[in-house]
Amino acid sequence: MDVRARLQSIAEATRARTAGIRITDRVLKMRAAMASSPGQVGKPNEDFVGAVPGAAVLLDGAGIPGTEAICRHGVAWYTHRLGASLLGRLSRDRGLDLAMALAESIEQVAREHRGTCDITNPSSPQSTVAMIRFDEDRADFLVLADSFVVLDQPETGPHVVADPREIAVRRECSAVLHGLPGGTPEYDRARLSAIEALRARRNQPDGYWIAKEDPHAATHAVTGSISLASLVGAALLSNGASRIVDPYGLATWPAVLELMRTSGPSEIIQRVRGAEDAALSADTQPDVRPPDDATAAYCEAG
Ligand SMILES: [Zn+2]
Description:
Blueprint lengths: L2 H15 L12 E8 L9 E6 L2 E7 L5 H4 L4 H18 L5 H16 L13 E8 L3 E7 L2 E6 L6 E4 L2 H9 L11 H16 L21 E6 L5 E6 L14 H10 L2 H18 L11 E8 L1
Antiparallel strand pairs: 1-10, 2-3, 3-4, 4-5, 5-8, 6-7, 6-9, 9-10
Helix pairs in contact: 3-4, 7-8
This protein binds zinc ion (ZN).
């Protein structure tokens, strides 16, 4: 067999072996900058952020009082296990549907502590989810509960992907507190009933959905895809970091993206912390709230 025939034979054998397998020589490219800060000194940061080539994940664990008695691991453990599982899946299987990846990871982490913890309790560890993944020609995104993906589209302006159901349900449930003076028995009773009402609507069709023990929640996530032709990058923010826009009004979404690109995500968190410090010391704003874990990331495509 001459050289030409041998080469042809090898090529045919290779074609037969790889039939049905997508061959690509593309290089996955994404530049990611991330920052995260705990809301309170000495308490674990219950946010998680991480990236693999082409994809990033941000989670915000819900710090519900009493969770420690329900799950021996805690909220920070939950978000870090779920985040690590998601990143592993997104890295291993580039074509995996984002909602499917989330469902599988929720189930995996549920398995890890189903035997030791009361994971079906409405107050067991739970987390919001924000994900972005860049492919050859498009970006896929997913948001579940109160976190944000902000698509950076210079020509048309930012597209904010949010899941408003958690905030809407919280607002409805806490309406019973309006007008009641704090520290009174009436207020305390109303607060307990508001907490119960919120628990009853968690991961329920008439309520809101959040990553917990039920993989079904992933099917309720806000998802979509966008062409890379109009996109330069995407920002991910926990609601501790998005305070820079609402409620503090320190920046618009276009300004947030500009800050992310020029100064990095840590600048967002520093400005939020500055506003929180000022509000706490002045104690004049009606919506003064304690500092929350704050996490932000900016992922540049290509
Ligand atoms: Zn547990």
